[in-house]
Automatic annotation (TrEMBL):
It holds the Pfam family Glyco_hydro_28. Belongs to the glycosyl hydrolase 28 family. GO terms for molecular function: polygalacturonase activity. SUPFAM superfamilies: Pectin lyase-like. It comes from the Eukaryota. The lineage of its organism: Eukaryota, Viridiplantae, Streptophyta, Embryophyta, Tracheophyta. This is Polygalacturonase.
């Protein structure tokens, strides 16, 4: 009888490379292809790796792990073998079966790990679709558009929306953009409306600034964010709308923003740059399954909106491009952002609510915001930012499954004297980061105000920020938490955090903060040392 048992595991370098491999958004990830079973060999198993204290299982299909059990019968037949050999064969077979039943060799259950399941904790309930399909469906070609990448289609898009607006109370409408390159200036959306980009469709932003008209500043900003006076309208815009869908088969919207970045670098900008997509005073919005490229300024900007879903998006801009934030919910409520991949020259996601005295006056907070499974990189800014324009307040924010690499910070809360407002009840869990300069940063002193009317007595209030289950590799330094002397950041809770930091930068920097920390490495500052008589943070 011949018996052989072979177990081949991936090398340490191979596992490290797989663990640190950047993750694509779900709608772009290829499904794992499993080889067919042949010659009695077992299929590759699903490896589940738990990273230290992070409690963040990472699922990897990999052919490097191959378990083969080869049982070859010896020459005699069943009834010709001595009883002793038959018993030995049975014992060895049972031994192999027992070995394969060990937990570390078991195949993972069919359900994927929690933050690899795109249906887990979905945004259901944030967007309420119409009871019936859109009644009127037209192609932009019907209105004279030409998808050659050179012909201006501004009037065609505007004409199409004006026509479809009449179906708003008659079952709604849908405008299809077929494969092609459709050059256009600004156009507005309408209510009960779907803009659908087919596979291979690209909407190109005009490089003529005249096709991005100047509009009034937002009330909560008081002026253009970059220049006094008005601001350029977004490429795709909507104001006062309800039930708006912008989706497709991974079509693209390309702002061709380089001319605008040049204006900024050369200091020849006359008005604040426009966004790629902005919706104002609107509700019941779904933006999904698209790629946004090269925005002149912040890419997607829902402001004064409610019940907004942004899902399955890819946002790309050169890493050196100025202020090309990915997604910026601003003075908006009930916003769900999930399964997005972002590379930009600014924050991947930034939660805002107005600027100094103007934001305080409007007093419209950003509240009830969920951000799940966002991944990406930004060399100068953060994965998740709150502020610095937060004068209307930020409350009830949940961030889960963030993955950031090669960035200035993973999480950053930005405030300043004169901002006023508040940031309360923020929970960030299951964060993963690699090669981050400062993993967690609370900063003060942005020193930018809209005008001389800002109030130096308006101090921000930061309370109840919880950060848990964090793993960080090749981190530049320990966290930096800087509050304000007369407005101490209160009730910070940091637990189950492991950061692999350069040896000379392991000391936390803390000032004007209070709270607790448990199971944290490197050792946190005295302001956050664990209090054995307290349990509010440990059990939160």
């Amino acid at each position: 009888m011949k018996f052989a048992f072979l177990l081949r595991l991936p090398t340490v370098d191979r596992v490290h490379a797989l663990v640190n491999r950047p993750q694509l958004p779900f709608h772009l990830r290829p499904k794992p292809k499993l080889p067919s079973q042949r010659n009695g060999s077992r299929l590759p198993r699903l490896i589940s790796i738990s990273l230290s204290r992070a409690r963040m299982p990472i699922a990897i299909w990999d052919n490097a792990m191959d378990v083969r059990v080869m049982l070859r019968s010896f020459p005699c037949r069943r009834h010709g073998c001595p009883a002793s050999l038959r018993l030995l064969s049975l014992a060895m077979t049972l031994g192999v079966v027992g070995l394969l039943s060990w937990p570390w060799l078991q195949t993972a259950p069919a359900a994927a790990p929690s933050h690899e399941d795109p249906d887990r904790n979905s945004c259901a309930g944030f967007y309420r679709p119409a009871a019936t399909p859109r009644r009127a469906v037209f192609s932009v070609e019907h209105f004279g558009a030409v998808g050659d990448g050179r012909t201006s289609n501004t009037e065609a898009f505007r004409k199409a929306v004006r026509h479809l607006e009449s179906f708003g109370d008659k079952g709604g409408s849908q405008l299809n953009v077929p494969r092609g390159r459709w050059l256009t200036g600004n156009f507005n959306l309408t209510s009960n409306f779907t803009l659908f980009l087919e596979e291979g469709a690209v909407i190109l932003g005009s490089q003529d600034p005249g096709e991005w008209p100047v509009i009034d500043p937002l009330p909560s900003y008081g002026r253009g964010r970059e220049r006094l006076g008005g601001r350029h309208i977004s490429l795709i815009h909507g104001d006062g709308l309800s039930d708006v869908v912008v989706t497709g088969q991974n079509g693209s919207i390309d702002g061709q923003g380089k001319i605008w970045w040049d204006f900024w670098w050369n200091r020849t900008l006359q008005h604040t740059r426009g966004h790629l997509l902005e919706l104002v005073n609107s509700n019941n919005i779904l933006i999904s399954n698209l790629t946004f490229l090269n925005s002149p300024f912040w890419t997607i900007h829902p402001v004064y909106c409610s019940y907004v879903v942004l899902k399955g998006l890819t946002v790309l801009a050169p890493l050196h491009s100025p202020n090309t934030d990915g997604i910026d919910p601003d003075s908006s409520s009930h916003v769900c952002i999930e399964d997005c991949y972002i590379e930009s020259g600014d924050d991947l996601v930034a939660v805002k609510s107005g600027w100094d005295q103007y934001g305080i006056s409007v007093a419209r907070p950003s509240t009830d915001i969920i951000i799940r499974r966002v991944s990406g990189t930004t060399p100068t800014c953060s994965g998740i930012g709150i502020g610095s324009e937060m004068s209307g307040g930020v409350n009830n924010v949940v961030v889960e499954g963030l993955h950031v690499w090669d960035s200035a910070a993973a999480v950053r809360i930005k405030t300043d004297i004169g901002r006023g407002g508040y940031i309360t009840n923020v929970k960030l869990t299951d964060l993963r980061m690699e090669r981050i300069k400062v993993p967690i940063r609370f900063s003060r002193g942005s020193n930018d105000h809209p005008d001389e009317g800002w109030d130096p007595k308006a101090l921000p209030r930061i309370k109840g920020v919880h950060i848990a289950n964090v793993i960080g590799f090749e981190v530049g330094k320990a966290p930096v938490l800087e509050g304000i002397k007369d407005a101490v950041f209160e009730d910070l809770c940091i637990r189950n955090v492991t950061l692999f930091v350069k040896k000379q930068e392991v000391k936390w920097q803390c000032e004007f903060v209070t709270g607790e920390a448990y199971d944290v490495s490197p050792v946190p500052c005295e302001d956050l040392r664990s209090n054995s008589s307290s349990s509010w943070c440990r059990e939160s």
